[in-house]
Design goal:
Layout (H helix, E strand, L loop, with lengths): L3 H8 L8 H4 L1 H22 L11 H11 L3 H10 L3 E2 L32 E3 L8 E5 L10 E5 L9 E11 L7 H17 L8 E6 L2 E3 L4 H10 L17 E9 L8 H19 L12 E7 L9 H13 L4 E7 L5 H9 L3 E5 L15 E6 L3 H4 L6 H9 L7 E3 L16 H4 L12
Parallel strand pairs: 5-6, 5-8, 9-10, 9-11, 11-12, 12-13
Antiparallel strand pairs: 1-4, 2-8, 3-4, 3-8, 6-7
Helix pairs in contact: 6-7, 6-8, 7-8, 8-10
Length: 438
């Protein structure tokens, strides 16, 4: 057996002889540097995400993922992890419009002080994930669903829609001028916030999570004017068997909430300008005289005037007392969108009963005046809803402070006049007049 001394002799390097490794140190360091560079490059590639703009074919996708470290098994796991939730969360039915609302309740809005509240996908808050929708129910929003998914691993059978999508939640009605307009204001605000540079490729409309497939004609025309082209309201005809994911989308569910008055006025300025361009309604067509345009805008049915002729004569006499005043009478239901735009462009004083036709007021110039008329009983029983057009006047820069008249005479209610049950009688009441002083 070899003793300890012999083993030490074998391991010893003579003092006058350099180790063989040191003899080739330059070549060794070269190979070490190459190895470090390779490992570093591989590490970067494995930790770099390569978002896909469209869902690629499986072969191309597999090649990309294998090259950069996302293998098909990982992609399948990401797909399997996509979880769809009901668009309408019934747990929050008692607070449907508050906070995160009952529409897409697991997500929160982006909001800067004074600006519009919105959700945008993909974004930093969504960790780069896109929005996917599933279901086409137009009767029960809890049967329609939403989810977030990475663009590299969209849900199975998903259809990918390119371009910008506007997703709107309206708690009321897209056919009503006021409720429809207030649901569109945030989209116009976001559009303006982005320098009007991005146009939507499509709209997806929801009411209580239920799909809606059209807007009222007036509202649709206004949005066509604002966004420079016909609206593409998505119906999902070709996507009945799977979810739909969007390349980019913006979701609104708080209407004008959170916006400062200045921002609201800027939005109305933009819509007014675009509507006039769309309808070729030039404010300069009014000339020097008449300098004051007074318009009596009438409605039919509920909250209409009992005697339109008498009311028109009263205001005609008042207008005649002012030099340069021109008096006009129109029925809102007989006018096209552009006829309403042109009429309001030549109006400085708008006189009308409470109703959706008053939404047209923002088409007047800033600092114009509004006179609004109410049936009996509204002051005590109608609640905050009676002030919605005063709000629009404020948002659009109009004057409404002293412009209300409430009829003290109306249909009889068998209960005391402050009983809530009387509102069902007063709500659609017609409006009389007071000719004192004429």
């Amino acid at each position: 057996m070899m003793n300890t001394k012999a083993r030490l002799e074998i391991c010893r390097i003579p003092q006058n002889q350099k180790p063989p490794l040191i003899k080739h140190n330059q070549s060794l360091w070269f190979y070490v540097l190459v190895l470090i560079t390779f490992v570093t490059t591989l590490f970067i590639l494995l930790h770099t995400r390569f978002p896909l703009q469209t869902p690629p074919s499986w072969h191309w996708q597999s090649s990309i993922f294998q090259t950069y470290g996302l293998n098909p098994n990982m992609v399948n796991k990401l797909r399997d992890s996509v979880t769809f939730f009901p668009l309408k969360d019934l747990r929050y039915s008692n607070a449907a419009l508050h906070g995160h609302t009952w529409f897409m309740s697991s997500l929160y809005d982006t909001h800067q002080d004074g600006e519009v509240q919105y959700q945008q996908f993909p974004s930093k808050s969504s960790q780069g994930r896109v929005l996917c929708l599933k279901g086409h129910d137009n009767h029960d929003g809890s049967w329609n669903y939403y989810a977030l998914a990475w663009p590299e691993a969209l849900p199975y059978n998903a259809t990918f829609m390119k371009g910008l999508t506007f997703v709107s939640y309206n708690h009321y009605d897209y056919g009503n001028l006021f409720h429809g307009l207030t649901s569109m204001i945030p989209f116009v605000a976001w559009h303006k916030m982005n320098n009007c540079s991005i146009m939507p490729s499509r709209w997806v409309l929801y009411h209580w999570g239920e799909l809606r497939f059209n807007m009222g004609l007036w509202l649709g025309s206004l949005m066509e004017a604002t966004f420079d082209g016909p609206l593409n309201i998505e119906r999902f005809y070709d996507e009945e068997n799977g979810p739909v994911c969007f390349e980019e989308d913006v979701v609104m569910r708080h209407n004008e909430g959170g916006m400062s008055r200045q921002r609201r006025m800027e939005v109305f300025d933009l819509m007014r300008c675009k509507a006039r361009m769309y309808c070729n309604a030039e404010i300069n067509d009014r000339g020097v005289f008449p300098v004051i345009g007074m318009t009596l805008l009438l409605r039919t049915g509920a909250r209409s005037f009992k005697n339109e002729t008498v009311v028109a004569d009263m205001f005609l006499k008042e207008c005649a007392k002012v030099q340069g005043c021109r008096f006009m009478v129109a029925h809102s239901n007989n006018l096209t969108f552009c006829e309403q735009v042109k009429l309001m462009s030549s109006t400085d004083i708008l006189i009308s009963p409470h109703g959706a036709q008053l939404t047209n007021m923002f088409l007047m110039e800033r600092n114009s005046s509004v006179m609004e008329f109410f049936p009996k009983g509204w002051l005590k029983l109608a609640g905050v809803g009676q002030y919605v057009y005063r709000s629009i006047a404020s948002w659009a820069g109009m004057k409404h402070d002293e412009g209300s008249w409430r009829d003290p005479i109306g249909d009889h209610c068998p209960y005391s006049e402050d009983d809530r049950r009387c509102m069902s009688i007063y709500k659609g009441g017609r409006i009389g007049h007071n000719d004192v002083g004429n």
